[in-house]
Structure formats: structure tokens, C-alpha cells
Amino acid sequence: MTVFLSQNRISKLNIIHMLNIKVDQLVNEIKEYINLRYELLKLEMTERSSVIGSSVFSMAIIVVLILFFLFLGSIGLSIYISELLDCTYAGFLIVAGAYLLLGLILFLGRKKLIEEPLRDKIIRILTKKENDTKNL
Asked: I want to staple 91 with a disulfide (CB 3.0 to 4.6 A). Which of 38, 76, 81, 110 is the partner?
């Protein structure tokens, strides 16, 4: 009977030891999984940040070029209108008035014309799926 009890006890100790090993393995695998998910999240955020950064940079270049065109075109248009009206400053005032009118329209419609489309574009970039690269 004592031999049976000691074998039973040894068997229980072996089971407990094996369970401890399995729990340790499970804990290590969970830690590894969490670390891998963290690294994946960092890589995804890096990718999305680089997409946003490159988009902002390319848009900045385009905006600068458009501003150069508008600036030089405005000067040319102002001079042309001034010559048509035979008044040195009238062309510049008319072009400035057109810009003022455009500025007021943009100011009054800034939410619908600027803020909402820009916000939607940023949200689309941040929430895009891995395989969805169109419309960025």
C-alpha cells in the first residue's frame, strides 16, 4: 500500500511539474505574441506615417508651384488690366478684389470645402487596409 501511495504521489508531482512547464511555455508564447503584435503595430504606424509625410511633402511642392503661378499670373493680369483701363493701379486693385472675394468664399465655406475633405483624406490614409492602396 505504501508503494502505491508513493507512486501515486510521484505521479501527481510529475503531472504538476508537467503542468508548470506547459503554463510556462504558454506564458512565453503569449509574451512572444504580444511582442510580435507590438512590432507589427509599430511597423504599420511607421508605414502610415511615411505615407502621410510623403503626401504632405508632395502636396507642399505642388502648392508652392501653384502659388508661384498665381503670383506671377496675378502680376501679369494686373498689368494687363491696368493697361486696358489706362490706370496704373486699377488692375492691381481689381485683381486684389478678386482675391478678396475668393478668400471670403473660402472662409465662409471652409468646413465643407477644406476641413471635411482634408479630414476624410487623413482618416482614409490612417484606416486603410493592407491590400487597399487605391484612392490615396
From this structure: 81
